Amino acid sequence: MKLSTPLTLPCGVTLKNRFAKSAMSENMASSGHLGNPKFATLYRRWSNGGAGLLITGNIMVDSSALGEPHNIVFEKGLEQQGIKSWTGAGRENETHLWAQLNHPGKQSPKFLSPTPVAPSAVALKAPLDKIFNKPRELREDEILAIIARFGIAAAIAKDHGFTGVQIHGAHGYLVSQFLSPHHNRREDRWGGSLENRMRFACEVYKSIRENVGADFPVGIKLNSADFQKGGFSEEDSMEVVKELSALGMDLIEISGGNYESQEMMGKPKKESTKKREAYFLEYCEKVRKVTDTPLMLTGGFRTLDGMNEALATDSCDVIGLGRSLVINPEFPKQLLAGESVKSEVQQLTTGFKSLDKNFPLEITWYTQQIHRMGQGKDPDPKQSVLASVLHTLFSMGIQGLKRVRS
């Protein structure tokens, strides 16, 4: 079974099998954006679950640019704590643990960033403009400073025991914003042509590589497309893949969409696509023809047959699992042992259509399961979705509700 076959990356590092936990934001840092024992407890559970690679939720490279209030931050001058116990736990059983590095750009909520920054001063569309302020366009010196921050954060990750890093270049965050002609309307060397728009991603990679060396894994999570008019297209994405591959990227994870078009969460598709499970499999088959760099495909895998088919056809090299590992952290181990199991991921609903439409159910419900595991508890697949919403609202309090409504 190819799922159990080791994979050697271009840098020479070997993953023990083809399962990877894709990044999901933990949002449980201590005050000051510091680590704590919950991360070790959580990642020990996953490292004992059988996957060859675990990728953390986004670790921010700038404490003044956060995606969520409880993000971990790696930056110069911030003395981290509890990280080595986290990396020690996550590396048990010869498991690789990579730090996902991120800058949110304009996708930083109003209560965290009164004036967020982005490639261009383009606001997110309604209703997201109620949550995120219109950004200010970055200056050249600020762009260079952020690129340097990625390199510094990668060095910190390596020093603290992570075995690799992943650049978050998808889902509408800053790297993705630079790639998109909709969000990036600059007329200097950072915008306009695709060559210019991909410059930021390439320079971030180079900065990281200079800080960690040639034998340390560096990957990227990249959109197959933004799925919005005038955005980052499949054709653009394949050209970026070719360029990053030539530079020496070790693993490219394929995803898609952003806050304005949430394809990464799964949407109804034609029946033939549903049978093949993975949301972005067709794109992966196309991009496989233009690169030899290992590809990780995340989103939609539910059964052993679907995973085996994707690997057998060489459409991808690594199977990325997210929500499935929140509900059942032992899922890879069970599949590798030949047990008859499938993902328990289901469409979440409170029973109220308006609430389902306007509340981030997927984020809050799964984050609560992650927090349960961080507290040493088992996930609760039967937890009421409505109760999860009410818990979130009460825990946010009046000020939190004002922030969401603002």
What does this structure look like?
With 406 residues, this protein is an alpha/beta fold. It folds into two domains: 343 residues, Aldolase class I (TIM Barrel, Alpha-Beta Barrel); 61 residues, no CATH class. Helices cover 37% and strands 12% of the residues. It has 15 helices and 13 strands. The strands form three sheets. It has an eight-stranded parallel barrel with strand order 3-4-6-9-10-11-12-13, surrounded by six helices. Strands 1-2 form a two-stranded antiparallel sheet. Helix 1 packs parallel to helix 2. It is globular and about 55 Å long. The N and C termini lie far apart (52 Å). The C terminus is likely disordered.
The third-level CATH topology of the largest domain is TIM Barrel
The largest beta-sheet arranges its strands as 3-4-6-9-10-11-12-13
Distance between the termini: 52 Å
CATH superfamily of the largest domain: Aldolase class I
Model regions low in confidence, pLDDT < 50 over at least 5 residues: 260-276, 398-406
- β content, as a range? 5-15%
Q: Shape, please?
A: globular
Largest sheet: 8 strands, parallel, barrel
Give the second-level CATH assignment, the architecture of the largest domain. Alpha-Beta Barrel
Radius of gyration: 20 Å
Number of helices: 15
Total E-strand runs: 13
Helix content: 25-40%
> Which whole number gives the mean pLDDT?
91
Task: Give the class from helix and strand content and strand pairing.
Answer: alpha/beta
CATH class of the largest domain: Alpha Beta
Query: What series of H and E elements makes up the topology?
Result: EEEHEEHEEEHEHHHEHEHHEHEHHHHH
What is the number of domains?
Answer: 2
